[in-house]
Amino acid sequence: MAESTRVSPEELERREKYLRAGLREVNLMDPFTWSYPLKGAGVMVAIVPRLIGVAVMGAVGYGMGSLREHHYKTRDAVIQHYIELHPKDFDHFNDRCGRPFSQILLPWYPRRTQYTKYD
């Protein structure tokens, strides 16, 4: 090797110590200088609030679903009670035959482009 590329043993030792884990001075802005427990602490700290958040959101969703179900049950009970109190107003629902669809639906005249007449 040329003399210009030769590195002193002190420089080699300094470089090796710099690259080995745990031997560099701790810098808060450089996560590669943190110890291994501190590197995983962020994940462990972040997982607990997320689990609590998921549990809270699940409980809120379950509660809202229960409230919605209660609301619809109450509404149906009120409507059923009203129908029982005023049966004459709802006799047309009991008629199984009812009106034919020809009286309900409007006439439909298909206008298709393939049947257009050209003059």
TrEMBL record:
Cross-referenced InterPro entries: NDUC2
Record keywords: Electron transport, Membrane, Mitochondrion, Mitochondrion inner membrane, Respiratory chain, Transmembrane, Transmembrane helix, Transport
GO biological process, one term: mitochondrial electron transport, NADH to ubiquinone
Membrane-crossing residue ranges in chain numbering: 41-65
GO cellular component, one term: mitochondrial inner membrane
Source domain of life: Eukaryota
Record flagged with keyword ATP-binding: no
One Pfam family per UniProt: NDUF_C2
Topology term for the membrane: Single-pass membrane protein
Main location: mitochondrion
Subcellular location(s) per record: Mitochondrion inner membrane
Family statement: Belongs to the complex I NDUFC2 subunit family.
Protein name: NADH dehydrogenase [ubiquinone] 1 subunit C2
Originating organism: Ancylostoma duodenale
